[in-house]
Write a structure and sequence with these properties.
By secondary structure, this protein is of the alpha+beta class. The chain has a single domain, classed as Chemotaxis protein chec. It is built from seven helices and eight strands. It has helices at about 20-25, 45-55, 60, 65-70, 85-95, 115-125, 125-135; strands at about 5-10, 15, 30-35, 40, 75, 80-85, 100-105, 105-110. It has a six-stranded antiparallel β-sheet. The protein has a two-stranded antiparallel ribbon with strand order 2-6. Strand 3 and strand 4 (about 40) form a beta hairpin. The protein starts with a strand and ends with a helix.
Amino acid sequence: MFGQYRHSIDAKGRLIVPSKLREELGDSFFVAQAPDPCLTIYTKAEWQRVIDHFNSLPLTESRKLRYFFANVWQCEPDKQGRFLLPESLRNYAGLKQDVIFLGLAGRAEIWAAERYEAQEPEHLTPEAIEAALKELGF
């Protein structure tokens, strides 16, 4: 998955999965709170990797993720590609109306459009991209 796609939340709290991401996300996916002020969308395969890693943790460590797992939602888009985004997740990410979907390889993110657009310019410079690629070994 890659790219960015602008959409709006409707009055019922539903979002449309961008058509470019529908096939990759499939008929069911998982939405969770992210470390940044946004939401992460996991495909079934990516979510299974999260679960497998979680299950390999000692109980004392796995407790740290209790609240993370308590706030994950499985979503199944309807025939129009719409899915309900629970109010608790919308509140966490500050999602009001306009949102931006970002494709991030095997997963995606949902950002409040104004929040993402405020941060993007500082990260979208040749110097910032070069530094990130270098730091990550590309």
